[in-house]
Specification:
The structure is a homodimer.
Chain A lengths: L5 H12 L5 H12 L2 E2 H8 L3 H13 L3 E6 L2 E6 L2 H18 L4 H4 L2
Antiparallel strand pairs in A: 1-3, 2-3
Chain A binds a DNA duplex through helix 4.
DNA sequence: GTGAAGCATCGATATATTTGAATATATAGA
DNA sequence: TCTATATATTCAAATATATCGATGCTTCAC
């Protein structure tokens, strides 16, 4: 593990961690990872107001986590890089173990 | 990629994403991943007030991301599970590519 | 038991974030 | 051009978070 600098941590925070720091945005990432989806579809899936979805999509887009492509009046969003979900899936497995008492913190006893 | 439920996303958010959503906490995770460190040392490393460090450590501790062990009057913190930094390192590599124009979003052109 | 060191908690302030109603903008079709 | 549809933006309110001084608690040495 290469030591990390404070500047690198700030970039990591600004471009990724801040982006995945909301449950709605996590759901959005999973939804657009399956296939490109437009805002209307995402609004139905998330069950929140459309401006709220646009707000979260903007945060994801500004950080480069998702990409937007217009098709007529619709705008389709998709995941920009598979590593984003790859990392989240590792954390998801960790949490799953945590919930079933299999995470390493529990095994230390 | 197994579909994720809304409840699972909420757990993922509560136990991990919320925990790594602050640059100071990211630094703390990297510091305690090297070796167990006590609060005084972490306070010097982070260059913030001691209550601020304790606050962040509490957030990490409550989520199970770090574990605390007392030794005399000191309390040493360490990383609870290597997968946490493993995932963060993937995101770190992604951001590094993003900064040098090598991330997949750029390569789509 | 007393004092000191190390850490946690409390309380207050400043700042940031989430949310949605209202509104603006952009595209397509008639 | 006019209208409908889809999305973005603005604005305000509510909520959450970060920070640190003051203080409390625990442990150890004497």
């Amino acid at each position: 593990m290469t030591p990390i600098s404070e500047e690198e941590v700030l970039l990591l925070h600004r471009y990724v961690c801040e982006g995945i720091a909301d449950p709605k945005r996590l759901m959005l990432l999973y939804y657009v990872a399956e296939r490109p989806r437009n805002v209307s579809e995402l609004t139905e899936l998330l069950d929140v107001a459309q401006p709220t979805v646009s707000h979260h999509l903007r945060i994801l887009r500004e950080r480069g986590l998702v990409v937007a492509e217009r098709d007529g009046t619709s705008i389709f969003y998709s995941l920009s890089d598979p590593r984003i979900l790859q990392a989240i899936e590792i954390l998801r497995a960790y949490v799953a173990d945590l919930m079933t008492g299999r995470a390493s913190v529990v095994n230390k006893a």
